[in-house]
Amino acid sequence: MTVEIVFRCPPEWDDILPRPIPGRDGLPDWLRAMPGQAHSVPLDQDVRTVKQCPPFIDAMGGGWLMPLLCDVSVDADCSFSWDWDLPVSSLDRLTRAPIAQHPSAQLDGVPFAAPGMAALKFNSAWTVSVPDGWSVLFTHPVNRFDLPFRTLTGIVDCDAFSHGFVHFPALWTDRDWTGTLPKGTPVAQLWPVPRGITARFGTLDGDHVGQVEETLDLIGDARGGYRKNHRAHNR
Questions:
Q1: Structural domain includes residue 133
Q2: What is the overall mean pLDDT for the chain?
Q3: Total structural domains in the chain?
Q4: Distance CA 9, CA 55 (A)
Q5: Could you tell me if 124 and 70 are in contact, meaning their C-beta atoms sit under 8 angstroms apart?
Q6: Does 110 reside within a domain?
Q7: pTM, two decimal places
């Protein structure tokens, strides 16, 4: 099933804003550079790295990446600045700042927010629209623990909220990080998710037993068994 996402921005900024991109087009340089195999000292043999793990790669390459709108400089005291000369938009209530601050009190009692940790909001200038009956999951770019922030996860009903701007709350986790976050840095990753999913439970008996054995044989007899026999190719 194909689900179309529609991204819209103010017309005055269409030629300026970085666009959301498919996850596969935003794979990080470190993933491309890492080896496909590495030596395991405990096993005394070479093993495949996560670069050859389809679920790991497919998660990173799935969905769409939402970009940082412009270069943002970060000083040692976690102060943020930017130099971005945007034309005036007809949407006069739309912020022109790429980053805003959340009051730290909003995180009181959250176990993963250390006292004094900067609470940010990455602003977006793109609306997101999906078909009726679908929501959108927004989360931190998958497996991107190299980034100095952690975007919080949320779900938005973007079939109804198709003309509102979804911004991305985040925690600045690396207090020692200074420098410039470049324009286009992925600040969130999104997937459409259907609503109304139900579940049922059963046991692995009857034909399911044989199917489990067949699956285990296919993935155990040769390297790449999951990739060759079970992985979808129409991504």
A1: yes
A2: 92
A3: 1
A4: 32
A5: no
A6: yes
A7: 0.92
Q: Report d(CA 202, CA 204) in Å as an integer.
A: 7
The answer to whether residue 43 sits within a structural domain is: no
For residue 70, give the nearest of 62, 60, 80 by alpha carbon.
80
Q: How confident is the model over 39-52, as pLDDT tens digits?
A: 888 988 888 899 99
Report how far Cα 31 is from the mean position of its chain's Cα atoms: 15
At residue 84, what is the residue type? W
Choose between 66 and 235: higher pLDDT. Answer: 66
Place of tokens 């938009």: 89
Is there a domain that residue 61 lies in? yes
Q: In terms of Cα–Cα distance, which of 59, 186, 50, 192 is closest to 124?
A: 186
From the list 98, 93, 189, 182, the residue with the least C-alpha distance to 150 is 189
Find tokens 């805003």 and name the residue.
100
**Residue 68 or residue 115, greater confidence:** 68
